[in-house]
Amino acid sequence: IVRYLTHRYRGVGEKTAKTLVERFGSELFAILQNDPAAVSRVVPANRAEQVLEAWGADYDRRTASNATTTGGTGDGGKSSSSRHRSRSRGRT
């Protein structure tokens, strides 16, 4: 997961990635999706924002790719607006 984050997420270095993985482990991606405020409790706010923005772009890219290969929306019925509300929940 650390390697994925450092190579895919612009602005996320090894220290930030390791901190997130040590805290959340295999649940990290679920946390990014469902409880973004938790990220801010583990890393500085500016880093958390970078991680969450990169996660959003990665999620959108993966969802679009999934929709293309499956012929569906790729988002399990979620609309784009509900996905973005979910990601921004808990931010100040």
From TrEMBL:
This is RecD helicase-like helix-hairpin-helix domain-containing protein. It comes from marine metagenome. Residues 81-92 have a biased composition (Basic residues). Coiled coil: none annotated. InterPro entries: RuvA_2-like. Residues 59-92 are annotated as: Disordered.
